[in-house]
Amino acid sequence: MGAALIDLCQEDAMFPEIGRPVADLLAELTRLKAADLPVRGGKVTAYVYDTGRAEVHDAAFAAYAEMLEVNMLDPTAFPSMVALEKQVVGAVAELLGNPAAPGIFTSGGTESIMLAVKAARDARAVERPRIVVPVTAHPAFHKAAHYLGVEVVAVPVDLETFKVSPDAIEAAIDERTVLVVASAPSYPQGVIDPIGEIAARAAARGVPCHVDACVGGWLLPWLREAGADVPPFDLSVPGVTSISCDLHKFGYAPKGASVLLFTDAAMRRKAYFASAAWPGYTIINSTVQSSRSAGPLGGAWGTLQALGRDGYAELGRTTLEATRRLADGIAKIPGLRVLGEPEASLVAFAGSPEVDVFVLADEARKRGWFLQPQLSYAGIPANIHITVTGVTHTGVNAMLDIIAESTDAARAAGPAQIPPGLPELIATLDLDALDDATFTDLAASVGINLRSTDQPEMATVNAVLDALPAPTRESILIRFLSVIYS
Fold this sequence. Notes:
Largest sheet: 7 strands, mixed
Number of strands: 13
Helix content: 40-55%
CATH architecture of the domain at 61-303: 3-Layer(aba) Sandwich
Structural class: alpha/beta
CATH superfamily of the domain at 61-303: Type I PLP-dependent aspartate aminotransferase-like (Major domain)
Distance between the termini: 34 Å
Radius of gyration: 24 Å
Strand content: 5-15%
Order of helices and strands: HHHHEHEHEHEHEHEEHEEHEEHEEHHHHH
CATH topology of the domain at 61-303: Aspartate Aminotransferase, domain 2
């Protein structure tokens, strides 16, 4: 009886009195993951990247585990991680137009972007620095600016092509501009900004130009090799001074693995941080983090080695074919339209008055597929985003069937209904002044139960968010995150 009671208490305890067997821990993790989206198979069209090759994932897992306990804090203590980072950074530099380019291995695109902004800010050292970005640039630039005390100047994009105009970028540059940004591609619609012209305009004004190729850096060269018309976008383009490339996206490495490259070592040094103003050990960091596991580095190295050039070339070929088939198929579904002309393997499509894309996403979720909804912004309509990965090739027809079926269901159900006056009411609230219980009740009024672990229908929630200005959306999202972790 006593042993049974201890077992029961341990099962419910956040921190057990007595250590638990590994088998029990793994069983609990399996139970906790039961409601998660599947990371393999291609039915989740965002957040995860799947080659469809189990042996590649196995190689990454083994290499990750081998390097798990290596601490990247001190490169003199663990020379293995220096050797691996040189190989990984070198491979990315070779693929992106300058084999000698100095770089940094980071935890992901956000950290790469943050370090690029830091380097540009510190290199120019002006008061109240600014960065000029398209409205389609990743929010990581806004996050970096928030953390680093930099102002963001956001430039609208063309509402047919969804690309930013070089003229508009140049017009936004002033004496306080420390960095100009372009995307290859931008995430929302998967199109490539005119990198060459933007970089040339920035260079003429003496301003560095960063290319956000977090999505496309390790994809576009292979698509080009497969026959896609990919314009120059990398370090070979005059005026491009830095570029970010995520290996945990189309490099198919485990999270988190990204590389930030510079055209010269002096700019890379501006991304570093060192401190000797204390009586302890030497502090020199190449990233935002100090202590960090070399597991992701090992996983990235293992993935690159396991696939090789021929593996990535084949993935590029099948991904390009799948993207074209998917975009063509969506365009033929009544009530849907593809936004822009996808130049990578990201496809976005909007609905119509009779097809609410938020309802469509819920209908697909009911059928076991996750299609990522995107809110409207800066004249760009609400839409659905799909990331085509290596595994998609064998499931394009199934995905198109689901999209068509979900479109029909959304048309029959009609648009999501926003409770009358709710957006106006929310816009008047001081959300910071609400306690968690009141905010939870407010969420319940639009059909989302924050106390439930079940996946709610999100169409009404997304419709309400879509009706609100961006700052109010952000306040609600922050409150939502606070509540679910409370």
